[in-house]
Amino acid sequence: MLASLTVPIQMPALVIKLEPGYKQHTVADGRSRVIVGMSVTAANSSEHDSAVGVIDKAVRSLKTIPEAVCADAAYASGNNRASFDERGIRLVSPPPKARTYTGDKYFTVEEFVYDEIGDVFTCPAGEILKYIGRVKDRPNQRRYAGLRRVCRKCKLKDKCTKSDRRQLKVGVNHAALILFQAESRTESFKKLYRSRAPVIEGVFAEAKEWHGLRRAWRRGMAKMQQQCLLIAAVINYKRLATHTNGCYRVLSALKTAIGYLFWHFSSHLWNENRPSPQINRI
Ligand code: SF4
After folding, report:
1. Which structural domains are found in the chain, ordered by start?
2. CB 147 within 8 A of CB 166
3. Which residues line ligand 1 (CB under 6 A)?
4. What average pLDDT does the segment 14-41 reach?
């Protein structure tokens, strides 16, 4: 199970207009609810870009490949679906519905049929839109367009575009996105996706309510990572204690380990915040 949580930093109430924050991406095992992977990014970064990295890290540390990864809709994209396919992992994350900048006024990309072999789209009027190049500053996006002389005379133009010709912007893995959308309508996909929320949202609720993940304790990515790792360790120790039926020796070992982690964390912070010694130059 993969999901993200945005953690704002503690700010005085008067200056909450531009609030810095961090995003924690967490991977938890579906059965045991043990946290098996995590990464922290800036709050304004996209989930799309973090999914593959955090799962790869979890796979490397577990030395096993999961059958499926259930993630919230923010992680759904054609690129992620293609990357998970390459790794032999099923991505269960509902792809977003296609939209245009004009709401429901014009045809969305879903109303154009994509031919992967010919790399062309067929529009609702039966005309062909060809590849015309990448989107500027977005190497992962491709542009397709119809012919001006055809679009100008088209009877469906009022529902398609107000420009001379219709253009489409799609991801480089648009074919994977179409497969993903078809798969998201199957019963097995929906069933797996329903199992996601109780696990991962429960882990987040536990971390926020009982272990202080509601707010960042310190500024800075490294300090936020330390906070997240510390909280994840405490949650996993609790799972371990439950699995060992509260055995006295295990509990006492856990208490020592958690104490050590807190000591290590606070001494590290203290060293970082300590002012550097003055050097007197003569
Ligand atoms: S305006 Fe162009 S792209 Fe749109 S339906 Fe008509 S011919 Fe097709």
Report:
1. 2-95+184-273 (3.30.420), 109-172 (no CATH)
2. no
3. 123-125, 127, 146, 150-151, 154, 156-157, 160-161, 166
4. 81
